[in-house]
Amino acid sequence: MSMCGRGVESVDIRQLEYFVQVARLNSFSKAAESLFITQPTISKMIRNLEVELGADLFYREGKSIRLTDAGEILLTKAQNTVESFQSLSSELDSLRDLKKGHIRIGLPPMVGASFFPAVIGQFHKKYPEVTIRLYEDGAKKVENDVETGLLDVGVVVLPVNSARFHYFSFNEEKLQLLVPVTHRLAGTESVPMSELAEEEFVLFREDFTLHDRIITECVKAGFQPKVVYESSQWDLISRMVAAGLGIALLPETICRDMDRSRIAIIPLTVPAIPWQVGMIWRRDRYLSFAAREWIDFARGLLEE
Predict the structure, then answer these.
(1) pTM of the model
(2) Does the keyword Metal-binding apply (predicted)?
(3) Is 80 a domain residue?
(4) Residues 76 and 198 in one domain
(5) 79 exposed, middle or buried (CB, 10 Å; 0-12, 13-18, 19+)?
(6) Could you tell me if 176 and 149 lie in one domain?
(7) In this structure, what CATH number is given to the domain that contains residue 41?
(8) Does the N terminus or the C terminus of the chain have fewer Cβ atoms within 10 A?
């Protein structure tokens, strides 16, 4: 047979699988039986392969066959290719069946402690081979890292750009005022924002959405807040308040864990500042099987 075939680039994996099986069993009929296809089908597939490569792969001597020199060369390469493909298929099946995988999740500190230990625990119990890496940052950085692809999914303070992100909301509440128990406002039932004009504030850092939200609401109320401390940890902020270093505004969920013997927690009114939390992921980026399952799993638990 002349060497004028179309070449190796036109060979597909099924042809190689059939060729390897014929070579292993030294028989077209046995190979066809093991592959659950007819002998004419496998004979035609091997003939097409020979045409495409431009070389005979088997000597046909009656009912017996043996590899040609070209067949010997192809067998070595084909076995490696078929084994690699079968390994890849197995890996992909494992991913589809959620036997393995990896998910990168961004969480603001005050959200992670409140909502996710139980969710992550249940997910790990169901999918023990899927690893989760948590990145704890402010909501603004989490949103940016999801957008750039550093994270698969993230939890942020809503709203977000719905043209850029898919999302679902799982918690909505209001900010509460935290003051030391010795503060002049400690015994009041509610406090308007304008009443805080002369106070010193302890805020989250600038990479936290609440930093800008609180400053914006203060300006709307007619004053620029006096910021004396900034932190990335809500428990440190609460301890600063308890020590009399300033006041703070934190979500209701966080306030439930405060030491009421040292901190007074008061509803904030006029305006009541909403705090809505959601999980986001990019609209135009591929999500792994594990990440998609995590979204569905978390959504099912958090939206209950």
Answers:
(1) 0.66
(2) no
(3) yes
(4) no
(5) middle
(6) no
(7) 1.10.10.10
(8) C
121 and 243 share a domain? no
Q: Which amino acid, residue 183?
A: H
d(CA 142, CA 150): 9
Do 164 and 213 lie in one domain? The reply is no
Give dist(CA 20, CA 78) in Å, integer.
Answer: 7
Place of tokens 């989490």: 142
Task: Based on the fold, state whether residues 116 and 207 are members of the same structural domain.
Answer: no
Dist CA 104 CA 89 (whole Å)? 24
Q: Is residue 3 part of a domain?
A: no
CATH number for position 198: 3.40.190.290
Alpha-helical runs (H) found in the chain:
13-25, 28-35, 39-53, 69-96, 109-126, 139-148, 209-220, 234-242, 252-255, 289-302
Interatomic CA distance for residues 198 and 14, integer angstroms? 77
Residues 80 and 25 in one domain: yes
Is the preceding omega at residue 159 within 30 degrees of 0, hence cis? yes
235 DSSP assignment:
H
In a domain, 1, yes or no: no
Structure-token pair, residue 118: 């139980």
Cα separation, 155 vs 209, in Å, equals 12
